[in-house]
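Is this the right way to post structure tokens for a design question? Let me know if I should format differently. Anyway, here goes:
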């Protein structure tokens, strides 16, 4: 079942976001203990209108457990949401890294899908496809976008299957990504 995320989902959302940040090799993930980063992500889900604020998130539940999530928001608000990280009550060891994702990833005229993640135990069940399809169908009058690591062929295949096309490439955090859109 797909539903709007709630504050109490922050623990599972933080784990899913951490998986993505770990794949991106973000500095704070590389250099800080996992529990400290998870705590910061949990706070970002409820204490400030950050990218990962619960109102930007849909979750997929299986037997009343969060199996995956999708995070999206208007591209024109991306850096405003990023700046909200600075409002969080975080330890100095996290603050020294600044905001986690300071580089603009979306264009202002897009609705950006920042994260699609599924826990390993639930992969292969079509959950990511269902989350994507549900989100795209929720507003067919906007241009949706996302970035896909150029080495992630499985994800690229999924995105193309639901209608995404390439709009070029972008370098983010020392990785190359396909910038994909659905109009």
């Amino acid at each position: 079942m797909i539903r709007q995320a709630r504050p109490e989902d922050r623990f599972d959302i933080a784990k899913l976001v951490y998986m993505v940040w770990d794949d991106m090799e973000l500095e704070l993930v590389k250099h800080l203990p996992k529990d400290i980063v998870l705590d910061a992500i949990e706070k970002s889900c409820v204490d400030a209108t950050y990218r990962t604020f619960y109102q930007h998130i849909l979750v997929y539940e299986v037997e009343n457990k969060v199996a995956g999530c999708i995070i999206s928001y208007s591209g024109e608000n991306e850096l405003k949401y990023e700046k909200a990280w600075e409002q969080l009550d975080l330890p100095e060891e996290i603050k020294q890294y600044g905001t986690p994702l300071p580089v603009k990833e979306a264009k202002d005229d897009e609705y950006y899908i920042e994260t699609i993640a599924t826990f390993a135990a639930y992969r292969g069940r079509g959950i990511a496809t269902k989350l994507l399809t549900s989100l795209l169908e929720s507003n067919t009058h906007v241009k949706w976008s996302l970035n896909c690591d150029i080495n992630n062929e499985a994800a690229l295949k999924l995105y193309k299957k639901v209608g995404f096309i390439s709009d070029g490439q972008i370098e983010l955090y020392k990785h190359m990504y396909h910038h994909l859109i659905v109009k």
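Format looks fine. Someone answered above. Worth noting: The chain has a mean pLDDT of 96. The longest helix spans residues 10-24.
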